[in-house]
Amino acid sequence: MHAVLASWFRLKYPHIALGALASSAPILYFDGVKPGGEASESCYKTIRKSWVEIERVASKRNGLSILSKKFKTCSRLRRTFDLKDYLDSLYSEAAQYDEPPDYPVGIVCSAIDGAPNDDVLGQIFAGVVAYMGDSSCYDVASDSAPPAPSASAWSWQMCSELVFPIGHDGGDDTMFPPAPFDLKSFTKICRSRFGIVPQPHWVTTFYGGHVCKSINIYTSNIITQ
């Protein structure tokens, strides 16, 4: 986030800031992104199939208990959302920090591809173990622990200033289940938690959006449209 703010500061105050170094600043990273699957096509397909399989198993008698045992959750699952959200976050984090020396995307996909392919959820769990390490249980429940202060600060900043429309619509170009960004729901959460109404166009209005006439913004590892 500091890289994004550095870029915007340079755009807003070119008479104060002589330049900005922005490493990994996804300022325009919203749409038009190249479909994934480069690490492993089979891994991509397995993850894509797993969401339906999770719901299929959950629909069985004692299905949530079966999933809890399968993924060695520290507490019994009460809903499939917690498991799917945990996996979604795990994959997203692995991709965001896919850097040397570990390259976590490769670690996750190698484990998924290396597990017996007649058990989709077994393959997915193998990826969890490879990424998280072998543990007696995995803390999957999203409400099992209070958020860290830094997470609360970030949530406040997203509600008050930086509205990032993060989500995925499903379809053929993603391995994730449909979870589009819903501004109404986001606004409701912000009002309930902080008493703040988000301003989704504030950044564009304040910093200038795509109107860029300044120079000396050096970017690295940046994806733009």
TrEMBL record:
Keyword terms: Glycoprotein, Hydrolase, Protease, Signal
GO biological process, alphabetically ordered: proteolysis
Keyword Protein transport: no
InterPro entries registered for this protein in UniProt: AB_hydrolase_fold, Peptidase_S28
Record-annotated membrane-spanning stretches: none
GO molecular function: dipeptidyl-peptidase activity; serine-type exopeptidase activity
Family assignment from sequence similarity: Belongs to the peptidase S28 family.
PANTHER family: PROLYLCARBOXYPEPTIDASE-LIKE PROTEIN-RELATED (PTHR11010:SF110), PROTEASE S28 PRO-X CARBOXYPEPTIDASE-RELATED (PTHR11010)
Protein name listed in UniProt: Uncharacterized protein
